[in-house]
Amino acid sequence: MAYAKHRQSHKKELYYILCIVAVTLVLSFSLFGPGGYRDLRRARLELELQRARVEELELGNQQRMRSIEALRSDRDALESYARQKGYGKEGEIIHHLPGE
After folding, report:
1. pTM of this prediction exceeds 0.90
2. Could you tell me if 46 and 40 are in contact, meaning their C-beta atoms sit under 8 angstroms apart?
3. Which of 16, 39, 68, 100 is deepest in the core (most CB within 10 A)?
4. 12, 4 in Cβ contact below 8 A?
């Protein structure tokens, strides 16, 4: 009878140990396995970086759209831009200095 109790006690201990090992494996896999917490954290960081890049690009696009609108509607802005690019009015002589 003592042997049966002792044997049953070992079965319970083995059962608990196996449960602990199983839970540990599941948690380890969910934290460090593919699609786990580390991958999720890395993906969130990448998403934040991409959102910042999109915002930066959108600001640049807005600035370019304002420049385009100014060139379409403001004759002085168009003339200034053309002169920056080396163009001049008909009959003007344009001198390019070294280093420009």
Report:
1. no
2. no
3. 39
4. no
